[in-house]
Structure prediction request, 175 residues.
Amino acid sequence: MPQVGATSGDDVNVIIESPRGSTAKFKRDEQSGLFMLSRPLPAGLLYPCDWGFIPETLAEDGDPLDAFAVWDGCSYPGILIVSRPIGVLRLSQTMHSTGVTSRNDRVAVVPTSDSRLRGVRSVEDLPQRTRDELQQFFAASVAFEPKRVEFQGWGGPEEAWQTIRDAAGRHERTR
Prediction:
Protein backbone atom coordinates (compact mmCIF):
# COMPACT_ATOMS: atom_id res chain seq x y z
CA MET A 1 0.00 0.00 0.00
CA PRO A 2 1.39 3.46 -0.85
CA GLN A 3 2.16 5.87 1.94
CA VAL A 4 -0.66 8.37 2.36
CA GLY A 5 1.32 11.50 1.54
CA ALA A 6 3.73 9.89 -0.89
CA THR A 7 4.17 10.90 -4.47
CA SER A 8 6.28 9.01 -6.96
CA GLY A 9 7.24 10.00 -10.45
CA ASP A 10 4.12 11.33 -12.12
CA ASP A 11 1.73 10.21 -9.36
CA VAL A 12 0.18 11.85 -6.31
CA ASN A 13 -2.18 10.41 -3.71
CA VAL A 14 -5.65 11.89 -3.34
CA ILE A 15 -7.98 11.10 -0.44
CA ILE A 16 -11.64 11.35 -1.48
CA GLU A 17 -14.02 13.28 0.76
CA SER A 18 -17.10 13.74 -1.46
CA PRO A 19 -17.64 11.16 -4.21
CA ARG A 20 -18.99 11.86 -7.65
CA GLY A 21 -22.79 12.07 -7.51
CA SER A 22 -22.89 13.22 -3.89
CA THR A 23 -25.33 16.01 -3.00
CA ALA A 24 -23.33 16.94 0.10
CA LYS A 25 -19.83 18.18 0.84
CA PHE A 26 -17.99 15.98 3.31
CA LYS A 27 -14.82 16.97 5.09
CA ARG A 28 -12.27 14.84 6.91
CA ASP A 29 -11.95 15.79 10.58
CA GLU A 30 -8.23 16.02 11.41
CA GLN A 31 -8.68 14.98 15.05
CA SER A 32 -10.86 11.89 14.62
CA GLY A 33 -10.04 10.96 11.02
CA LEU A 34 -13.77 10.59 10.38
CA PHE A 35 -15.59 12.13 7.44
CA MET A 36 -18.20 14.61 8.59
CA LEU A 37 -20.98 16.40 6.77
CA SER A 38 -19.72 19.89 5.98
CA ARG A 39 -22.87 21.10 4.23
CA PRO A 40 -25.43 20.05 1.66
CA LEU A 41 -24.92 21.38 -1.84
CA PRO A 42 -27.53 23.79 -3.20
CA ALA A 43 -30.67 22.04 -4.46
CA GLY A 44 -30.16 20.27 -7.76
CA LEU A 45 -26.35 20.14 -7.59
CA LEU A 46 -24.22 17.05 -7.28
CA TYR A 47 -20.50 16.52 -7.51
CA PRO A 48 -19.47 15.95 -11.16
CA CYS A 49 -16.24 14.26 -10.04
CA ASP A 50 -14.64 12.73 -6.96
CA TRP A 51 -13.58 15.57 -4.64
CA GLY A 52 -10.88 15.41 -2.00
CA PHE A 53 -7.42 16.53 -0.99
CA ILE A 54 -3.75 15.73 -1.35
CA PRO A 55 -2.43 14.52 2.03
CA GLU A 56 0.53 16.17 3.73
CA THR A 57 -0.07 19.46 1.94
CA LEU A 58 -1.24 22.84 3.18
CA ALA A 59 -2.92 25.23 0.76
CA GLU A 60 -2.92 29.00 1.18
CA ASP A 61 -6.42 28.84 2.70
CA GLY A 62 -5.09 26.74 5.62
CA ASP A 63 -6.63 23.42 4.51
CA PRO A 64 -4.99 20.51 2.69
CA LEU A 65 -4.68 21.17 -1.05
CA ASP A 66 -7.98 20.50 -2.84
CA ALA A 67 -8.04 17.97 -5.68
CA PHE A 68 -10.70 16.52 -7.93
CA ALA A 69 -10.52 13.31 -9.95
CA VAL A 70 -11.91 13.57 -13.48
CA TRP A 71 -13.09 10.12 -14.56
CA ASP A 72 -16.28 8.18 -15.25
CA GLY A 73 -16.24 6.32 -11.95
CA CYS A 74 -16.93 7.32 -8.41
CA SER A 75 -15.50 6.17 -5.11
CA TYR A 76 -16.35 6.64 -1.43
CA PRO A 77 -15.19 8.94 1.37
CA GLY A 78 -11.80 7.84 2.66
CA ILE A 79 -10.64 6.09 -0.51
CA LEU A 80 -7.06 6.79 -1.63
CA ILE A 81 -6.73 7.21 -5.39
CA VAL A 82 -3.25 7.20 -6.90
CA SER A 83 -3.52 9.91 -9.54
CA ARG A 84 -1.73 11.89 -12.21
CA PRO A 85 -2.06 15.69 -11.93
CA ILE A 86 -3.24 17.14 -15.25
CA GLY A 87 -3.78 20.76 -14.27
CA VAL A 88 -4.97 23.27 -11.74
CA LEU A 89 -8.02 25.50 -11.58
CA ARG A 90 -6.73 28.77 -10.14
CA LEU A 91 -9.15 30.72 -7.99
CA SER A 92 -9.32 33.09 -5.07
CA GLN A 93 -12.02 33.39 -2.46
CA THR A 94 -13.02 36.38 -0.38
CA MET A 95 -14.79 35.81 2.93
CA HIS A 96 -17.68 38.27 3.29
CA SER A 97 -17.29 38.51 7.07
CA THR A 98 -13.62 39.53 7.05
CA GLY A 99 -12.97 40.74 3.53
CA VAL A 100 -9.86 38.53 3.53
CA THR A 101 -8.97 37.08 0.14
CA SER A 102 -6.92 33.89 -0.22
CA ARG A 103 -6.01 31.53 -3.02
CA ASN A 104 -8.01 28.30 -3.09
CA ASP A 105 -6.64 26.43 -6.10
CA ARG A 106 -7.94 22.97 -7.03
CA VAL A 107 -5.70 20.36 -8.64
CA ALA A 108 -7.27 18.29 -11.42
CA VAL A 109 -6.15 14.65 -11.52
CA VAL A 110 -6.97 11.40 -13.30
CA PRO A 111 -6.64 7.99 -11.61
CA THR A 112 -3.53 6.23 -12.89
CA SER A 113 -5.28 2.85 -12.70
CA ASP A 114 -7.90 3.87 -15.28
CA SER A 115 -6.35 2.73 -18.56
CA ARG A 116 -8.97 4.69 -20.54
CA LEU A 117 -7.32 7.90 -19.33
CA ARG A 118 -3.69 7.09 -20.24
CA GLY A 119 -3.78 9.67 -23.02
CA VAL A 120 -5.06 12.45 -20.73
CA ARG A 121 -1.90 14.28 -19.70
CA SER A 122 -3.24 17.84 -19.40
CA VAL A 123 -6.52 19.66 -18.76
CA GLU A 124 -6.14 20.74 -22.39
CA ASP A 125 -6.91 17.10 -23.30
CA LEU A 126 -10.36 17.53 -21.74
CA PRO A 127 -13.13 19.05 -23.82
CA GLN A 128 -13.60 22.79 -23.25
CA ARG A 129 -17.20 22.04 -22.27
CA THR A 130 -15.97 19.76 -19.44
CA ARG A 131 -13.68 22.50 -18.09
CA ASP A 132 -16.49 25.06 -18.34
CA GLU A 133 -18.91 22.76 -16.52
CA LEU A 134 -16.41 22.07 -13.72
CA GLN A 135 -15.80 25.78 -13.25
CA GLN A 136 -19.54 26.45 -13.23
CA PHE A 137 -20.06 23.70 -10.64
CA PHE A 138 -17.45 25.21 -8.31
CA ALA A 139 -19.13 28.63 -8.60
CA ALA A 140 -22.64 27.26 -8.04
CA SER A 141 -21.60 25.03 -5.12
CA VAL A 142 -20.68 28.07 -2.98
CA ALA A 143 -23.43 30.41 -4.21
CA PHE A 144 -25.10 30.50 -0.78
CA GLU A 145 -21.89 30.45 1.27
CA PRO A 146 -20.50 33.59 2.93
CA LYS A 147 -17.74 33.94 0.33
CA ARG A 148 -17.15 35.08 -3.21
CA VAL A 149 -15.00 33.10 -5.63
CA GLU A 150 -13.10 34.51 -8.57
CA PHE A 151 -11.67 32.22 -11.24
CA GLN A 152 -8.27 33.03 -12.64
CA GLY A 153 -8.06 30.36 -15.32
CA TRP A 154 -6.57 26.92 -15.75
CA GLY A 155 -2.93 25.91 -15.51
CA GLY A 156 -1.36 22.80 -16.97
CA PRO A 157 0.37 19.84 -15.31
CA GLU A 158 3.60 21.75 -14.63
CA GLU A 159 1.69 24.42 -12.71
CA ALA A 160 -0.25 21.70 -10.88
CA TRP A 161 3.02 20.11 -9.74
CA GLN A 162 4.37 23.50 -8.62
CA THR A 163 1.16 24.06 -6.63
CA ILE A 164 1.58 20.63 -5.02
CA ARG A 165 5.27 21.24 -4.19
CA ASP A 166 4.44 24.65 -2.67
CA ALA A 167 1.65 23.14 -0.55
CA ALA A 168 3.88 20.22 0.57
CA GLY A 169 6.59 22.72 1.59
CA ARG A 170 4.04 24.79 3.51
CA HIS A 171 2.88 21.63 5.32
CA GLU A 172 6.45 20.63 6.16
CA ARG A 173 7.23 24.07 7.62
CA THR A 174 4.22 23.91 9.95
CA ARG A 175 5.04 20.48 11.41
In short: The chain has a mean pLDDT of 94.
